[in-house]
Amino acid sequence: MDLRDYARVLRERWRFVVACVLVFVAAAAAAVALTPRSYSAHARLFVATSDVSSANAYQGGLFSEERVKSYTQIVNSPPVIDGVINALHLHSTPSQLAGKISATAPLDTVLVDIKVTDSSPQQAQAIANETAVQFTQFVAQIEQTSPGGGATLVKVSAVGPSTAPTSPTSPQPALYLGIGLAAGLAVGVSGAILRASLDTRMRTRDDVRRELGLPTLGAVSADPALRGRSPVADPRGSRRAEDLGQLRTALRYAAGEQPPRAVVLASALPGEGRTTMAVDLALSYAQTGRRIVLVESDLREPRLAEYLGLASQPGLTELLTAAATPGEAVQDWGGGLLQVVTAGGLPAEPGELLAGADLRALLNVLQERADLVLLDSPPLLPFTDAALLAAEAGHALLVVRSGVTHQAGARRALESLRAVDTRVLGAVLTAVPRSRTERTAPKGRPAPDTGQRPVPWPDGWNGAASRRAGSGPLTDGVPVAGARSRLEQPRG
């Protein structure tokens, strides 16, 4: 990942980063609120030698500096602690009190700073003052020049009384909140980058190009307000309709000079927007005056009839089994704007039905009477139906749902299509998040109605039943010589 990738990850996952910051700052605030308050009082001692002659003053100063280093280690010694407890009548053990008292010696000085920490500011002040008194007495005893009680070499005296602290020294809200903020940012940023590196879902055009090596012909935005209906049917237009128009244009030139006549919309797994994309793209084409036939080739979990409010039967199954004619199975939608072939009845073996020569014959008939045939297919990974359809149609468009389709699944789906020598025109991203301004429906006009309507379908059908009956196939109701032998040729 380069710097732009990191910036993109943070831009996409900023909510996660903010959530981590808020959690850690809230934890820091809770720690501040729950931590008991403690106060620190200070007492300062001055250490000097008893020799006041000027000749030995320098040596005496060095001696005092060496002495104070040792004094910091014995401030909370048992004689001093016991004296403080007895003098102040404290209800604490010597070890508890010793833990509250500490001493330091500033560098290159003859001073000893005593620090006492307690939950009560007045108690901390009293202990600091009494510790200074007890320590000076203790030093006077251990620094005597002779066991008999002569003059001491060092004199320790308190530099003024201790004062009661006015504010607690712990907890420190600014420090705690700063640590919480820094920790939240660190966890949020690292977590966002880690999640992005482990996330195998494709979200952008760059992901599709990098992982699949396919051009992204279109990126269709997600718009919850349009759920359950196609935006191209809305005369006011929408951002989604514009996206479909761009996809339609890219698909027109994806196959070169000769536009595709039949395209299978395929996806790796269910729930990736394949059926919705087929409907919306078909309607987008139809509103430009093109003759479009939408075929529901998903014979396992069909939804198109319910989605468009059409009769579920007769449909593709009946056409392939010669139980119905195209005139009976092809239904008009939107006043003839679009022609639809639903799935029909659910066969016991959909794969075998789609593998027959009748599918190729049906596609030929549909292509003769339409500018484009769009086929909605089952998912590629669970079933082989979509690969069989793509082999007959010759062209496929891979549907990738942004933030849902995983790289491995999409690669396997692409391999399935290429294994049957199908030309994959590219990919289309569905449910692409848009900003609020991009989702706003622009003012637009519906595409003009050219008045062009599909040619009526013939009553005869060159399917299996026609061959069994011995009658010749019909095109526009007229038998075509040699059509029977052509249909019975092996699949190529």
What would a concise description of this structure say?
The protein is of the alpha/beta class. Helix content is 45%, strand content 16%.
Describe the protein:
A hairpin with a 2-residue loop joins strand 13 (474-475) and strand 14. The protein contains 20 helices and 14 strands. The longest helix is centred in the middle third of the chain and has 26 residues, at 173-198. Mean pLDDT is 80; it is low at 436-452 and 464-492. Strands 5-12-11-6-10-7-9-8 form an 8-stranded mixed sheet, sandwiched between helices. It has a 4-stranded antiparallel sheet with strand order 2-3-1-4. The chain is of the alpha/beta class. Helix content is 45%, strand content 16%. It starts with a helix and ends in a 5-residue tail after the last helix.
Helix fraction?
40-55%
Strand order of the largest sheet: 5-12-11-6-10-7-9-8
- Beta strand %: 15-25%
Regarding quaternary structure, what we see is single chain
How would you characterize the largest beta sheet? Answer: 8 strands, mixed
Radius of gyration: 43 Å
Distance between the termini: 45 Å
> What structural class results from the helix and strand content?
alpha/beta
Shape: rod-shaped
